[in-house]
Write a structure and sequence with these properties.
The protein has three helices and two strands; from the N terminus they run H-E-E-H-H. The protein is an alpha+beta fold. A two-stranded antiparallel sheet has the order 1-2. It is globular and about 40 Å long.
Length: 91
């Protein structure tokens, strides 16, 4: 999968995490969450494969179960590119 890695200044970290949780409509322990915030090792492909630990928002268990039964795989794992290609005007 691909995504964007955001690094906050230490003084802004707590506010940024709150803002991201609001954006993803995530509340710790809420069974209605569409996403869960989890810690993952992230490969920095633009930095010779360095690995950092980061918060990542992933589909909540009930959402993931639904996607496994009725979803489709996005080639290359790049959702943003997939969305852009879906919205290109016809040639």
């Amino acid at each position: 999968m691909r995504g964007e890695l955001v690094t906050a200044l230490p003084a802004a970290y707590d506010r940024l995490l709150v803002a991201l949780d609001l954006l993803e409509e995530y509340a710790p322990g809420d069974p209605r969450n569409l996403y869960e915030r989890v810690v993952r090792d992230v490969d920095l492909l633009d930095r010779d494969g360095a690995v950092v630990r980061a918060w990542v928002y992933v589909a909540a268990p009930r959402v993931a179960a639904g996607l496994r039964t009725s979803g489709s795989v996005i080639g290359g794992g790049d959702w943003a590119s997939h969305r852009r290609s879906d919205h290109l005007p016809p040639r």
